[in-house]
Write a structure and sequence with these properties.
There is one protein chain. By secondary structure, the chain is α/β, with parallel strands linked by helices. It contains 11 helices and 13 strands. 42% of the residues lie in helices and 24% in strands. Helix 3 packs parallel to helix 4. It is globular. 46% of the residues are buried.
Length: 314
């Protein structure tokens, strides 16, 4: 049985990794003022987009995920004739309608794929499952990397589902954003009041920058620092300790909403790369997708890995 992994464009992974593993993408459209762009995993295009400051607070912007009808069309046109099973992993269902749209589409796809496969000369049934990652951006990337490993190793469908479901509950994703007020304003436009006005204003006025965790369909602060760089370095030092302690997957995923070279400005990032290499862990670094950058702001840095249950000890 041939299996394909499908992720949405909010998932942060290097384009080369996505291509090498033959991972398929559910696009997300980004509307900025009166223009619409497609969130693509092209590092140079993403870097150029951030460099032009198209996601600054002075622009009106929103993300537009694929509808259930668009997802259905994508599967029937491209996937049901090439694969026997598809596992779709989405950004947290509390942060986007993608999970619900994909679930609705799956019902229609499973009702109508037979004629399409028969016309293409493909025997047998097609199956699919939609999985809510419960996390965001790099957290999705860790889950996708782990799942693609299982597919590469030829694991059976049911084993892949069981292992991926267990792993998604062990993923720790963290975010440091230069401007908490930016996050608050973007969330407010979507009707999300999880970042209070007072918290945002106090953080801005005192230059207090929180480290946010995205886990279990929830987003919450776990620590804070005086200034963006201090919070990023604190997060990276904590990640290094987790790598030294031992991860559940050999990956740390890091993304930045801007030029990838910006990561090199942090000593903790260089130390993370060195420690990871000594422990057989791969650091997958990439430019944050436009969906992530839109919601958390240019310059934001996300880090994720999988580990046993623990509290943030940064």
């Amino acid at each position: 049985m041939s299996t394909v992994l499908v992720i949405d464009a909010a998932c942060d992974l290097p384009p080369g990794f996505i291509d090498d593993r033959n991972i398929k993408l559910l696009p997300i459209a980004i509307r900025v003022d009166d223009q619409t762009y497609t969130d693509v995993k092209d590092a140079q295009k993403l870097t150029d987009f951030y460099a032009q400051d198209r996601l600054g607070r002075n622009h009106d912007a929103e993300s537009i995920p694929y509808s259930s009808e668009q997802i259905e069309r994508l599967f029937l046109d491209e996937l049901v004739t090439e694969y026997d099973f598809a596992l779709v992993q989405t950004v947290s269902r509390k942060r986007s309608p993608i999970y619900d749209n994909a679930t609705k589409a799956s019902h229609a796809i499973l009702r109508s794929y037979h004629d399409v496969r028969e016309a293409a000369g493909r025997d047998g049934n097609f199956g699919m499952r939609v999985m809510n990652s419960g996390t965001l951006f790099c957290g999705q990337g860790v889950l996708a990397a782990f799942t693609s490993d299982m597919i590469e190793r030829g694991k059976a469908k049911n084993e892949i589902l069981k292992l991926a479901d267990a792993m998604r509950q062990r993923i720790y994703a963290y975010l440091v954003a230069p401007d908490v007020y930016y996050i608050r304003e973007r969330a407010r436009k979507k009707g999300d009041e999880s970042v209070g006005m007072l918290t945002a204003l106090v953080a801005k006025s005192l230059d207090i920058v929180p480290i946010l965790s995205a886990r279990g369909d929830d987003t919450f602060p776990v620590a804070k620092g005086r200034g963006f760089d201090a919070s990023v370095d604190r997060l990276l030092r904590y990640t290094i300790r987790q790598v030294e302690h031992g991860l559940l997957t050999p990956y740390v995923v890091v993304s930045i909403a801007g030029d990838l070279s910006g990561l090199e400005n942090h000593e903790g990032y260089k130390a993370l790369q060195s420690t990871a290499a000594s422990k057989g862990v791969t650091v997958l670094s990439c430019v944050m997708g436009l969906t992530g950058g839109l919601n958390v702001g240019p310059g934001s840095i996300c880090v994720a890995f999988a580990a046993e249950d623990h509290e943030f000890d940064g």
